[in-house]
Amino acid sequence: MSSCLDLSAVEAKAALTEKKISATELTQAYLDAAARTEALNAYTEVTAEKALAMAKASDDRIAKGEARALEGIPIGVKDLFCTKGVETTACSNILNGFKPVYESTVTQNLWDDGAVMLGKLNCDEFAMGSANETSARGPVASPWKVAGDDKSYAPGGSSGGSAASVAARSSLMATGTDTGGSIRQPAAFCGVVGIKPTYGRCSRRGIVAFASSLDQAGPICRTVEDAALMLQSMASHDPGDSTSVSEPMPDLLKGLEDGVKGLKIGIPAEYTMDGMDSAIVSLWEEGRKWLEDAGASCVEVSLPHTKYALPTYYIVAPAEASSNLARYDGVRYGARMEGNSLDEMYAATRAAGFGDEVTRRILIGTYVLSAGYYDAYYLKAQKARRLIQQDFTSAFSGVDLLLTPATPSAAFPIGQKITDPVTMYLNDVFTVPASLAGVPAMSVPSGLAANGLPLGLQLIAPSFREDVLVRAGRAVEKAAAFSAVATGVAGGRS
Amino acid sequence: MTENTNLVEGRTGLWEVVIGLEVHAQVSSHSKLFSGSSAEFGAGPNEHVSLVDAAMPGMLPVINSYCVEQAVRTGLGINAEVNLVSVFDRKNYFYADLPQGYQISQYKQPIIGEGSITIDLKDGTTREIGIERLHLEQDAGKSLHDQHPSKSYIDLNRSGVALMEIVSRPDMRSAEEAAAYVSKLRSILRFLGTCDGNMEEGSLRADCNVSVRRPGEPFGTRTETKNLNSIRFISQAITSEVARQIEILEDGGVIDQETRLFDTSTGMTRAMRSKEDAHDYRYFPDPDLLPLVLDKAWVEDIRANLPELPDALKSRLISQYGLTPYDATVISEDRETAAFYEAVASGRDPKLAANWMTVELFGALNKMGKSLDESPVSPDHLGALVGLISDGTISGRIAKDVFASMVETGESPDKIIEEKGLRQVSDTGEIEAMIDTVLAENTDKVEEYRGGKDKLFGFFVGQVMKASKGQANPGMVNQLLKAKLDG
Fold it and tell me: Which of B56, B57, B90 sits opposite A323 (nearest CB)?
C-alpha cells in the first residue's frame, strides 16, 4: 500500500502542485499519524485545528496558482521555537503555561513560505541533553527497535522529538536546534538527515536561548533534498538578531545533483575514540570510498585541538546558559512558587521549575564565571575555542569538506546513560567541534549498526558553504542508498 | 600636581580628602539602548516596554546606533579617546526590576577611554580633573514597594534605557570641587545635547567615592555613596562622609570598604552593604552582541560637527567681550544663557550687559523662582535698556526703576520711559536754571562751601538731582555746578 506519508517533501510538493493530493488530505494524514504514534511522545502538543486551517489556506493558494516554496507541507516545530498563541515551554516546567505573543523568525519564514504547522515537538529541557530524557514532558522513544528487544531506545537529543517524528513519519519535516550536536546526533540515531547551518544563517530571534554563541536552528528531514529545501526557507538575515549574517544563502537545490567530482575531502585523524563501535569505523571507511568512487579525492588531515572541544564546550555552553536562564525568575511569566521574600521566591521557583540537568549546567556555568575561576575556566575555554576554530580554518585551506562519523555509537536504550552525565556528554564528541567553530555540518543516514540501528556520517564544510555541504550530502545519500525504515513508523513498512 | 590647599583640620592634624565620581547620565535618545521602545520620561507604568525590555524568551538586544553616536559625541566633548572596538558584557545579578537577570554594560573594553574636563572654582581658578572612562549600559526598571501591603510593583519603563557611566579619576580634593565637576560635566552634556542633565528626573545621578588620608600618604580606604541626584546632596554627602571618616580614624578605628546611602532627611550617609556582601557579577562578553566596531571617519565626522563647548565659549566671552572669568563662567554654564547674553551684548557695552544680566536679571528671576526661558524681560528689551544707559538717555538709577517695570509688565524700556517721562534731562539751560534755584535757596551753604567746606559739593548735587526728580544727567550736573560754585 502506498501512502502519502511515503512521499518526501519534494515529492509531496509535486503531488500538491499536480493536484494529486490536497494539502488538507496530506495534513490530515500526518495528524492521524501523530495520533497513531502518540506513544512515542514525540509531540508535546498537536495543533490540529491550526494545521487544518493553514492547510485550507494552502489549498486556496494552490488553486489560484500561488503556491510558495513549502506550500502545504506539514511541519513539526521543536518546542524551543516561540510560536504565537501556542504554548512554548522549551520542555521545562518553569515555562508552564507560557504562550508567546510573538513568532520566532525561523518559524515565521516557514509559514511565509506556505508550510503547515502540525504542532510542537518534544526536546530536552532547554535543549540540554543528548537523549531527550531531560524533558519535563517525559522521554521520547525512538521509532527504531532492536529485533528481539522490547526496550525503547533514545532518539538522541536535544531535538529528539523532531528526529523521532520525522523518522516515524508523523511529520514530514521538523525544525531542530543544534548547540553542540542537537540536530546531527538525533538525526543520526533516527536515520534521518539533519543540518546545522553556519552560525548566523538562521535567526535566533524567538528561539529560547541555551548558549547564544552556539545555538543554531536547522532542518531535520527525510532526504538531503528536503533538508536543502527547508533550510533555504529557514535561513534569513534578521535585523532582530545581531549575530545574524547578511551573506546571502546560495541556491541549495540548484547544484544538488552536481556530485563531488573534483572535490577534496579531508579525513580528520582525531575523530576516533576508545570503545568506538566498529561498525562506525567501517562505515567511515566506506563513506570515504563512496566519495572517491564519485570522483572526490580524500586526504588525511589533522585538527590537533579536537580533544579539547568537549571540555571547552562544557564550559562555554553552561556559562552562557547560566546567564541566559536567569530571566526565568517567576516575576513576569511562566511558573512562580511563592516565598516570603524575593530571594525565597526565586529559590523556590527555580528549584521547582528546573530539572536536574538544567540545574547542573546552571551551577557549572555560574562556577566557571565566578571571580577567581573565570581566568582558569571561561577565559581558557575561549582561548581553546579560538584554537579549535583555527584548526578548521587551516584544514579548509587544503580541503573542501571534512568527513567524520556523526556519533561514536548508535542509539542506546532510554535510561542507560542518564545517570552518568560524562558518558552522556561523550555523545557529542564529534559534533561539538563544528559548533564551536561555527561552521556548517550535517548528518546523513549511511548504514546500520550490528543491532540494526541507524548510523550517520557527518560532513563539515567551511562557513557559508552550505551549497557544497548538501551537494556532498546528496552524494553520500545516493551511494549509501539508505532504505531502512523504522519499525515504529506511522504507516508501517511500505 | 599643585599642592592641595583644601586640607581639612581634624583633632589630631590635617587630612586630605580624595574624591572620585561615577556619574550615570541618561543618553538623550528617543528609544532605548537595545530596543525600539520609547525612552521618554513620564509615561504611565509599563507603557514603554517592549518584548526585549521585558526579557521575553528568545528576545534579543539590537544596539541603537544613535545612542552609540551620543556616547562618541560625549567622549569627544570630554577630550577623551574613542575606542574603535568596544565590547558589551553581561553583569549578572538577580533583582525583580532587572528582567534579564543581567545588565548589559561594558566592562573591560569601554567605548570611551581616558579624557579630562576643566572645572571652574569660585575664586576664578580652574583645575583639570581626569576621566578614566565612559561606557554605555542599560538602566534597570523600578520597584515600587509602597503601593500594596504585601506586594511590590514593578515598572519597566526605564528598563533598557541607555546610560553613560562616566568615571572620574580620584582627582577631586573637596566637596566644592566635586560639585564643580558635576556642574561642569552637566553643562558639557547639555551643550552636546547628549543628556538633558535633569537631576530631579534622574537623568543624571552620581556615586561618590570618598576617602581621607594624611597629606603625602597613600590613598585611604574608600566608601562609595550611591545614587545622589542633586549637586547639593553630593556636597552634603561628601562633607558628612569626610567628617565621619576623620572621626573614626582619629579615634583609632579603620574605615570599612562599603557601599553607603545618603539619607536626605538627616544629610548623613549610612551603610548599605559591606565589601563581603558585594555581588560577584560574573561579567562576561554578551554573546548576543558582536563587538562594537566604529569607523574612524564616522568618528571624525562627529568631531568636526561638535558644537562650541563651555570652555571654548568661556574663553571667547573673555576675549571677545572682555568679561571677567567669573562672569564668563556664569554666562557659559548653559547655551541658552550664553545666547541670551550675546543678544543683550550685541552692539552694546559688553561689561555693562554682563552686569545687568548676572546681577539684575538673575536676581529678579531668582526672586520670582523663574528660569531664564521664562524671563519676562526679553534679550532685546534688556539690550535696549543697556543701550539707553550707555547713550545717556537715562541714568543708572532711573534704569533700575525702568527695569523693575520691565520685569513687572514685560514692556520695552522705551515705552516705559516715554509713558513715565523718565528721559534724562541733558539740556544745559534747564539744568542751569535748576542749579540757580538750588543755590538761591541755600545761600548760607554756598558761603560755607566757598569758605573751604568742599564736602558740601555732594549736598548741592543731591539737591539738584532731587529737583530734577532724578532725571538730570548726573555728569552734566556735576560739571555745571562746579563751574557755578567755583566761578
Answer: B90
Chain A residues in contact with B152 by the CB 8 A cut-off are 342
- Which residue does chain A place closest to B285, by CA atoms? A320
pTM of the model as a whole: 0.90
Domain match, B339 and B373 both: yes
B1 domain-assigned: no
For the beta carbon of residue B219, count every other beta carbon within 10 angstroms: 12
Model ipTM value: 0.96
Residues B283 and B432 reside in one and the same domain: no
Burial of B299 (0-12, 13-18, 19+ CB in 10 A): middle
Judge whether B61 lies within some domain.
Answer: yes
| C-alpha cell read off for B368 | 520670582
Q: Give the separation between CA A197 and CA A469, rounded to whole angstroms.
A: 9
Give the pLDDT confidence score for residue B1 in this predicted structure. 45
Domains of chain A: total: 1
- Across the interface, whether the CB atoms of A206 and B101 are under 8 A apart is answered no
Task: Determine the 3-state secondary structure of A235 from DSSP.
Answer: coil
Q: Provide the domain limits for residue A466.
A: 4-258+440-480
CA atoms of B485 and B448, how far apart (whole Å): 11
Q: Do B102 and A329 touch (CB under 8 A)?
A: no
Q: What does DSSP assign to residue B84?
A: S
pLDDT tens string B305-327: 999 999 999 999 999 999 998 89
Residues B253 and B121 in one domain: yes
| Interface touch B101/A327, C-beta < 8 Å | yes
Mean predicted confidence (pLDDT) in B19-47: 94
Q: Where are the alpha helices (DSSP H) in A191-326?
A: 224-234, 278-293, 309-324
| Residue range of the domain that includes B390 | 308-420
Q: A332 in a domain, yes or no?
A: no
Q: How far apart are CA A263 and CA A297, in angstroms?
A: 6
Does any CB of chain B come closer than 8 Å to the CB of residue A90? yes
Q: Are the beta carbons of B57 and A323 separated by less than 8 Å?
A: no
Out of B251, B278, B302, a domain closes at B302
CATH number (domain holding residue B436):
1.10.10.410
Predicted pLDDT of residue A489: 81
Please, which residues bridge with residue B285 across strands? Answer: B89
Residue B2, pLDDT above cutoff 60: no
Sign, CA dihedral B236-B237-B241-B242, equals: negative
Least Cα distance to A116 among A187, A148, A68 occurs for: A68
B35 contacts B268 by C-beta, under 8 angstroms:
no
Q: Confirm or reject contact between A429 and chain B (CB < 8 A).
A: no
Residues of B within an 8 Å Cβ radius of A: 51, 54-63, 90, 92, 94-96, 99-102, 152, 154, 280, 282-284, 287-290
Q: What is the mean pLDDT of chain B?
A: 93
Could you tell me if B392 and B437 lie in one domain? no
Closest to A405 in 3D by CA, of A446, A451, A464, A440 = A446
CA distance A332 to B59: 14
Q: How many domains does chain B have?
A: 3
Same domain, B410 and B433: no
Under DSSP, is residue B354 helix (H, G, I), strand (E, B) or coil?
A: helix
CA distance B260 to chain A (A): 22
Using an 8 Å CB-CB cutoff, list chain B residues near A240: 60, 62
Stretches in chain A below the pLDDT threshold 50: 1, 492-494
Tens of pLDDT, residue by residue over B362-382, are 999 999 999 999 999 999 999
| Residue B366 and residue B263 share a domain | no
Least-confidence region, from A326-340, B59-73, B468-482: B468-482
Please check whether residue A125 is in contact with residue A354, taking contact to mean a CB–CB distance below 8 angstroms: yes
Which tens digit of pLDDT belongs to each residue from B200-232?
Answer: 888 999 999 999 999 999 999 999 999 999 999
Of B275, B302, B329, the position where a domain reaches its end is B302
Name the residue of chain B whose CA is nearest to A346's CA. Answer: B94
